[in-house]
């Protein structure tokens, strides 16, 4: 949660800000000053002052403090007989006169302790009708700020002609919230912060458990949806007044944040771009609506849409996939433009070549993806297939059927083509989907998501595939084990490890792709050359590319290895060696055998025999894909049956470990897990089972009346 929220990027340009603190923050429930909160406020202002910000404070609280003091004064000056009479409400203007003096005395004391000077400026509504007053106000404030003095504004309630009990909303401003907005505009502030006694603006009364904090206020969306609670317990308007002031300031081009004045560092967090409180901005309506959807709402929407998807006929789901394939090809030009923009930005940012390679949609890739989607569409419908049928007893038939998992969360880095594969697999398998791509592929992912979801009919809804666009939502999503059924991370070891340690939701995937090719002593070296070069250089950034070449010791003695090593070098592959290979081949020693290069580099090591090769793979590998090249079938069988990896090959490149090449149509990733799915995960890996029992009135009744036969019957009967 520490990263800057993209919608808060404006804070980088803030130099001058107006902070408004309300009566509910300044005073306690008994009317006395809240010294702890005021002290924390002054310390934050001191920190901002020292960082070079120009801070203007608008402070309420004078009437409340004055009322508490005058009540005490009336009490000590009253006789017992006076106290028996009905008490007349104290005059608010007198309260303001007494309270303002006390309030400023406290601010002066607190700021003096922090080596800060403050100044009092009391204004009335009628003052702002005078152009000379406004010019003088600007001149005075500019001079004070140049000396790092904190101007403290308040409405001069003691002499204001505004009607009691402060329900007069006429005039240029009508309370301190609107005064703060007016001053922000008049004094050309870059930001207005309104401190409240709650975290921000909620969709309903904050005390209602169903109310949600609104992070960004969109007038067109929220104006008619919000239900306000009671007015402030002590001030004039509460949240209704703050929202009105915030909307007016935002419409004038000044960003506004409403946040809690109870937290010790909220103002500092706002200026760090943290996603706290509620933001009002004139451009909020242009931002993506997804940023307003909470993590839970996104997941629930995906689940509800997936159920509508499952309710469609097989032909209707097939048509959706065919429409998506057509839409991809029809939009190839705009997809390519957005992808090229991502690649250019990644190059300028200095990203690694392996990441840029995975990021780029090379010529022909869109057509290839569309073809994969059509292959999926034409496959047998995987949903509701009867996998096993059993007669439990006379007239009691049990069916084991295939069923969607529910809602999948896929977190992937770099590869925008993964979005297409995963989305099409989710639709084919009837699952809801939430996607989180890397920021380096932001534009590519956005256009691909738009193209795909626009091809989904309204009867299902585009929310069946949600695109998570901010970093902050990932930790929230990982907590939603009640609505997300499986997480599939596709990316670095660090990404996978972080996700596994941050969630209770089952995680399917692999952290590393450390794939081995073992050259046995009986290997056909012409074949070996073709396989090794393909496994390394066909697509070095892929998780199924060879990272370690293991060589039988006899091949070193015969010199058969030298030609292969030279071929690798001629292709530009950088070689590192294990302890034995680095000496024999005069190459730098690898820092670790457990290393995924994802580039034109690999490790070479010499082993004694197939047993040593298997031990090396088990000790240093990642259980992804491993290959043996040999003409000895007996040795090959030992390798194929003893290597405990998701995919084990004989005389074939590791690059074949791929969902499309396996005929799965597409893949969500390659799993090295041992539960549920292993290897390339296609449609079947995204399904679970459901038991369907068909009876004719049977009851258990202690099993007295049931004769079990447990007879397997043909699934098509």
UniProtKB/TrEMBL annotation:
Domain Aldehyde dehydrogenase: 293-557
Catalysed reaction, written as an equation: L-glutamate 5-semialdehyde + phosphate + NADP(+) = L-glutamyl 5-phosphate + NADPH + H(+); L-glutamate + ATP = L-glutamyl 5-phosphate + ADP
GO biological process: L-proline biosynthetic process
NCBIfam families the UniProt entry points to: P5CS (TIGR01092), PRK00197.1 (NF001221), proA (TIGR00407), proB (TIGR01027)
PANTHER family, sorted: DELTA-1-PYRROLINE-5-CARBOXYLATE SYNTHASE, GLUTAMATE SEMIALDEHYDE DEHYDROGENASE
Family indicated by similarity: In the C-terminal section; belongs to the gamma-glutamyl phosphate reductase family.
Protein name per its UniProtKB record: Delta-1-pyrroline-5-carboxylate synthase
Species of provenance: Herrania umbratica
Lineage: Eukaryota, Viridiplantae, Streptophyta, Embryophyta, Tracheophyta
């Amino acid at each position: 949660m520490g990263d800057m929220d993209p919608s808060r990027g404006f804070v980088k340009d803030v130099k001058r800000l107006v902070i408004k603190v309300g009566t509910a923050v300044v005073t306690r429930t008994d009317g006395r000053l809240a010294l702890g909160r005021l002290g924390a406020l002054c310390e934050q202002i001191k920190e901002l002052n020292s960082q070079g910000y120009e801070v203007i404070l608008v402070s309420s609280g004078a009437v409340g403090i004055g009322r508490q003091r005058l009540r005490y004064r009336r009490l000590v000056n009253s006789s017992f007989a006076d106290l028996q009479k009905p008490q007349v409400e104290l005059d608010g203007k007198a309260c303001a006169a007494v309270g303002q003096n006390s309030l400023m005395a406290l601010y002066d004391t607190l700021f003096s302790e922090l080596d800060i000077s403050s100044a009092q400026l009391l204004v009335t509504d009628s003052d702002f009708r005078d152009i000379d007053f406004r010019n003088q106000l600007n001149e005075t404030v500019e001079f004070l700020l140049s000396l790092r003095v904190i101007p403290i504004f308040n409405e001069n309630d003691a002499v204001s002609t505004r009607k009691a009990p402060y329900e007069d909303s006429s005039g240029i401003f009508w309370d301190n919230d609107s005064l703060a907005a007016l001053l922000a505009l008049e004094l050309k502030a870059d930001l207005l912060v309104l401190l409240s006694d709650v975290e921000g603006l909620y969709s309903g009364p904050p005390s209602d458990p169903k109310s949600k904090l609104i992070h960004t206020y969109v007038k067109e969306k929220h104006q008619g949806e919000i239900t306000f609670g009671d007015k402030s317990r002590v001030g004039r308007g509460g949240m209704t007044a703050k929202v009105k002031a915030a909307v007016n300031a935002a419409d004038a081009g000044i960003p506004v944040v409403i946040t809690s004045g109870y937290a010790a560092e909220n103002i500092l967090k706002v200026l760090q771009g943290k996603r706290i409180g509620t933001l009002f901005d004139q451009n909020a309506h242009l931002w993506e609506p997804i940023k307003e959807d909470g993590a839970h709402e996104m997941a629930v929407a995906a689940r509800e849409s997936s159920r509508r998807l499952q309710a469609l006929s097989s032909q209707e789901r097939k048509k959706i996939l065919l429409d998506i394939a057509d839409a991809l090809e029809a939009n190839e030009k705009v997809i390519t433009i957005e992808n090229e923009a991502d690649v250019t930005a990644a190059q300028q940012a200095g990203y690694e070549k392996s990441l840029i390679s995975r990021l780029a949609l090379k010529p022909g890739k869109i057509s290839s993806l569309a073809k994969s989607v059509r292959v999926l569409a034409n496959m047998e419908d995987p949903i509701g297939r009867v996998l096993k049928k059993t007669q439990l007893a006379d007239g009691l038939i049990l069916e084991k059927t295939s069923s969607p998992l529910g809602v999948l969360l896929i977190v992937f880095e770099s590869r925008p083509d993964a979005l297409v594969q995963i989305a099409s697999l989710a639709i084919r398998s009837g699952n809801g989907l939430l996607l989180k791509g890397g920021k380096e592929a932001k534009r590519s992912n956005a256009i691909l998501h738009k193209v795909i979801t626009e091809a989904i009919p309204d009867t299902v809804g585009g929310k069946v595939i949600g695109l998570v666009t901010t970093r902050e939502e990932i930790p929230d999503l990982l907590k939603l084990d009640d609505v997300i059924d499986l997480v599939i991370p596709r990316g670095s070891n660090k990404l996978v490890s972080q996700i596994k340690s941050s969630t209770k939701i089952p995680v399917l995937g692999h952290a590393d792709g450390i794939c081995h090719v073992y050259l046995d002593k009986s290997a056909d070296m012409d074949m070996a050359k073709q396989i090794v070069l393909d496994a390394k250089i066909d697509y070095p950034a892929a998780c199924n590319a060879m990272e370690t070449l293991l060589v039988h010791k006899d091949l070193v003695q015969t010199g058969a290895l030298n030609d292969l090593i030279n071929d690798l070098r001629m292709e530009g592959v950088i070689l590192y060696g294990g302890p034995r290979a680095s000496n024999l081949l005069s190459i730098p020693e690898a820092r670790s055998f457990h290393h995924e290069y994802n580039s034109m580099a690999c490790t070479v090591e010499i082993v004694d025999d197939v047993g040593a090769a298997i031990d090396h793979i088990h000790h240093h590998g990642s259980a992804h894909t491993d290959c043996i090249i040999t003409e000895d079938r007996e040795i090959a069988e030992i390798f194929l049956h003893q290597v405990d990896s998701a995919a084990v090959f004989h005389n074939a490149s590791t690059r074949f470990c791929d969902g499309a090449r396996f005929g799965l149509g597409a893949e969500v990733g390659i799993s090295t897990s041992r539960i549920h799915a292993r290897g390339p995960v296609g449609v079947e890996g995204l399904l679970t089972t459901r038991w369907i029992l068909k009876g004719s009135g049977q009851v258990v009744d202690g099993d007295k009346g049931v004769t079990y036969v447990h007879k397997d019957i043909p699934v098509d009967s």
